[in-house]
Every structure is written in structure tokens, then in C-alpha cells.
Amino acid sequence: MLDTEAKKASQREGRYPVMLVGATVMESFRDQLFDASNRAGMTPNEFVLQAAAEKLAASGRKFSGIFHRGDIVEYLPRKSA
Question: Which of 28, 48, 49, 64 shows its CA 20 to 30 Å from the CA of 39?
Fold first, then answer.
């Protein structure tokens, strides 16, 4: 479940474009990225943004979601009881 701060932020939070500039990568990496994103049913950009969100969540960063509120809940750090 999202913590209280993330819920409050998401209630007034808008959607904003992320302007990512193209990068030059090794051909094998590009091939694997496109294959993995295709198998996941998303664009390479969506796949990369989801991977970045997973890394941010794993490091303890709080945010309401990636593309819509709550779509990253399963990657947010769990609070210990």
C-alpha cells in the first residue's frame, strides 16, 4: 500500500512528459532491449522507465506511480511490522 505522503502527493499530481534524448548503445544491448520490451507488451521507452522506477523504489524513493497512480505499488519498499 502507498504511504500517506505518496497518496497526498498523487491526489494533486499532474502528468508530465519526460523528454529523453536518444543514446548510442551497443547493438546487442539494443536488440535485447527491444526483444524484452516487445515480450513485455510495451515500448522500449516504457520498459526503460519501468526499470528506472524499479531501481528508484528499491533505493527507497517514494512516488505515486509511473504512468498512472498505483502502477508501481508492488516495487515500493515494504514497511516491516
Answer: 64
In the chain, beta strands by DSSP E: none
CA distance 38 to 43: 7
pTM: 0.71
DSSP state of 59: T
Chain centroid to Cα 78, Å, comes to: 17
Radius of gyration of the chain (CA): 15
68-78 pLDDT, tens digit per residue, is: 888 887 655 56
**Separation CA 80–CA 34 (nearest Å):** 37
Strand partners, 33: none
